[in-house]
Design a protein that fits this description.
Elements (H helix, E strand, L loop, with lengths): L1 H7 L5 H36 L13 H65 L17 H49 L7 H32 L5 E5 H11 L1 H6 L3 E6 L5 E5 H17 L6 E9 L2 E8 L6 H5 L22 H11 L3 E6 L5 E8 L10
Parallel strand pairs: 2-4
Antiparallel strand pairs: 1-3, 4-5, 5-7, 6-7
Amino acid sequence: MRTARRLALPARTVRVRFTALYGVLFLLSGAALLVITNLVSLGSTRISEVAPGGGPPARNSTLAAAHERISLLESQLAGARESQSHQLLVGSAVALAVMALVSIVLGRIIAGRVLRPLRTITAATRRISADNLHERLAVPGPADEVKDLADTIDELLERLESSFAAQRRFVANASHELRTPLATMRASLDVAVAKPEPVPPQTVALADRLRIELDQVDRLLEGFLLLARTQHGAMSDRSTISLGRTVRAALDARAADIAARRLTVHDGDLHDDTWTQGSATLLSRMADNVIDNAITHNDEGGWITVATTTDGTTALLVVETGGRLLDQEQVARLAQPFQRLGADRTGSGDGSGLGLSIVAAIATAHGGGLDLAARPEGGLRVAISLPLAAARTGVPA
């Protein structure tokens, strides 16, 4: 019963409420008009029943016949009056029913005309996203409440566009500016270690440690740039890509890492004929991040299952790993930047916390999505959905 009630709630639109309001107003106006008409009709009937004042009563032999004639006329008049009242009542009921139907139709038409500008604004607002914030509603018409609403939304879009642009410039400029001191620091380390005189072992160990940290900062900056480009940048290298071949290339490039951790890869369901359309660079990075995540956050000697499937108009990439039981609430937050399950998951604290957030941003930029789920048996399931594209003829992707 609750389910049926929830299903009925979306039907309560503003147009339905306006239709009911206008319909009730029209119906009440029609009912008031019929009541006034009936009262006027009954008043005139009562007036016509009043007998005019006459002269002295008749005193002849036909008095009894006259009284009998009057009684007959009064009974006929009462019947005619009753018939007239019945016809008036029936006519009023029919008129009220017709008025009710007309009120609903007129109410729906008027509500539709009143809400038409709002529907136009809603449709235009839905078409505007982070990728086309330069578009505006630009609703024409007189300076009324609807025009004020549209102008306010346009001003909000203008502020959002400026904010997004400032954010992109800041991330790009900061990342580029930070690369120069990092390169200087790395060069200084190399010079310090390469001196002719013997270098103390502590200095060599410290230099190696600093190089590792500098490499981590480089990866973090690269992740910032890629995340900013994916979320707010335009894709100029769109082409038809084989999702299976892209993932297989990522696996082949990490064969040494997989062997080092003694992982078993099950890729029997990785099909090369699963096609999608998008940026080859970004989709390759998406596959790299997913495979890196499966390798890094895995048990020593564990397993990885990789599969690609199609479902109607969707290409699906699924990567599963084994391991201990995970909390679904924490897993769902992994698509956000700098979210980790912690070093206790694998015994390692590697990673910048941007890998799966970049995957989610790339999937969203291509019209797809990322779904993260904790497996009931333990481990993680990563499912990426992308729009399915027709197979490309020619050189394989």
